[in-house]
Amino acid sequence: MKPAPFEYHAPRSVEEAVAVLAEVGHDGKVLAGGQSLIPILNMRLASPGHLIDINHVTGLDDIEITSDSVRVGALVRHSGLERSDSTHAALPLLRQAVVNVAHPAIRNRGTTVGSIAHADAAGEMPAVLALCDGTVEVVGPHGIREVGWQHFFLGALETVLAPDELAVATRFNRMPPGTGTAFAESARRSGDYALAGVAVRVTVSDGVVSAAAASFVSVTDVPSVLDLTPALGGRELADAGFGSALDQAAEAVREHVAPETDIHASADYRRMLVAELTRRALPIAISRSNAAFVHESAVATVSSRTNAAFEGLGGGRR
Amino acid sequence: MNEMLHEVTLTVNGVRRTASVPARRLLSDFLRHDLTLTGTHVGCEHGVCGACTVLVGDEPVRSCLMFAVSAQGLEVTTVEGLGLRPDARDCATGQSMNPVQQAFTECHGLQCGFCTPGLLTTVTAYLDDHLDPTSDEAREAISGNLCRCTGYQNIVKSVLRAAEIKAERRAPDAAEPGEPHPGPVAAEGVPS
Predict the structure, then answer these.
(1) What is the pTM of this model?
(2) CB burial string A128-139: b at 16+ within 10 A, e below
(3) Over the stretch B98-118, which tens digit does the pLDDT of each residue have?
(4) How far is B116 from chain A (nearest CA, A)?
(5) Domain contains A315
(6) N or C terminus of chain B: which is more exposed, having fewer CB within 10 Å?
């Protein structure tokens, strides 16, 4: 339970970090928050020869909010994202999701960009990046490049980042006006990896759903966005049949995801779980969309929750 | 293999401490082995159990998920340092305890004591931001710390009681026995 020996590098600039990465190649690993990496090293599931600690690199700890996006630097801790009120005002989904990442002590150290670069299928923030149609800013020996989320993730724990490249920031696009978002996940133990999770966004114009989509945690091997507009689009929230539209959306989710069976849950259970979480999260997103009128039965669906594991649905619980 | 050593200097419980360690030395092991501050306990070593939680600055972090070299220049508070904080008081046992330590004593918030250092640091930081938690909030606050003895009931009580004691000690007219602790230097071990 102790890491194998490695050579430690503490670059002071992005250029210096990239130069070290280029020199050590596949034998190097970037250390940011380390909340996923250090357990892996402690258990000796990996033993890279070089660790490049970017915690002393300047200029990576900013959150920049523009009219279009929220740009999160590579040293912004989950807790920094969580506590930033201006970030919450610009893109509420970030706080709604990040409070589900492990426990406060982990969020105080772990970084949002790091968890995206780690690309764990059970990670919350890769799913959020996808739902926000986000971009990763990558610096390599030949300069900066931007990679859209669709091209960033190759598989579980696998991305397009080359050994000599550093993810310096991610950009989450803000939602169009009239859009509400919600995040829901269910885990066996508080703060543990979710058996299944979902991020949803719903855009409502004139009391009618004009767009809806979801992305998933732990039930797809790479982040993927499912367009739920076919199920919900054009539906009037006041329509008594809105419940059946939610059923359709849940059914679409069930068909879309590809969970695997492990000791924690069967694939079927995860499929059922993520469909139900989506069913419950959608009305919450709608209620946050500035919709003039929210269908009563849709809201009742939320208040009927009985499982304590769903208590995080409202977000901001920590 | 001869491992390269790094000289790491950090402030622990108000005292500057230095040791030369390999880069792979976890902060938890640095505190325990190199500084002989064995109050910090090591349970799972992968961030799940919370026993090794220390305060870096004012924030709780898992000391088993941080390398000592990464803590270079930072301020760390371990369970040994809680009795040196401004709101600590000398108690009936003659020891200096902060409100959380006092509350765990009063409410029987521990049995074997293995998880206790992590709980004390976690709750100390939590109560700095949450003056008057509800029972549910207290439960949520300790959800990252595993205890296999108590069943948590008395730990939740301790968190609530700690908030009360903290408020009493904050109140200027409080007739709280004991004097404020003189400060870090007197009680700290020999700095290396």
Answers:
(1) 0.90
(2) bbbbbbbbbbbb
(3) 999 999 999 999 999 999 999
(4) 15
(5) no
(6) N
